[in-house]
Design a protein that fits this description.
4 strands
């Protein structure tokens, strides 16, 4: 019985160390990745604020993004009090776009088009 207790304790301790050591690099990497995405998104958002009436208003003026999360961040920045109603994927030729459908405070439909070709179908 004493032997079993020692083995159990060693196994539990090993699992604890394994889980703790594996979690730190993942969180650090994720934090760095998110920080890098946020900094590049902020730069893009600054340029969109100038032309917010044009940016994303059509496929021709689609906003280039690197992730779906970035789409939502930009949409919230361009239309801060809008309610998100849905997202759709559209294709024109060999190019793909996401369309975010929103409703503004006045109840009017708002759409933003995002160019997703940099990451679409690559995973």
């Amino acid at each position: 019985m004493k032997q079993f207790s020692k083995i159990s304790l060693i196994v539990l301790f090993s699992l604890f160390l394994f889980n703790c050591s594996g979690a730190k690099p993942k969180n650090t990497l994720a934090s760095t990745s998110i920080a890098n995405k946020n900094s590049s998104t902020s730069e893009k958002e600054a340029s969109f604020n100038k032309d917010s009436n044009e940016a994303g208003s059509s496929v021709k003026n689609a906003i280039k993004v690197k992730s779906i999360a970035e789409e939502y961040q930009i949409a919230k920045k361009l239309c801060p009090n809008c309610k998100i109603n849905g997202q759709a994927l559209i294709s024109e030729g060999k190019k793909h776009y996401d369309v975010l459908n929103l409703t503004n405070e006045k109840g009017e439909a708002v759409k933003y088009y995002f160019d997703i070709n940099s990451f679409f179908g690559k995973w």
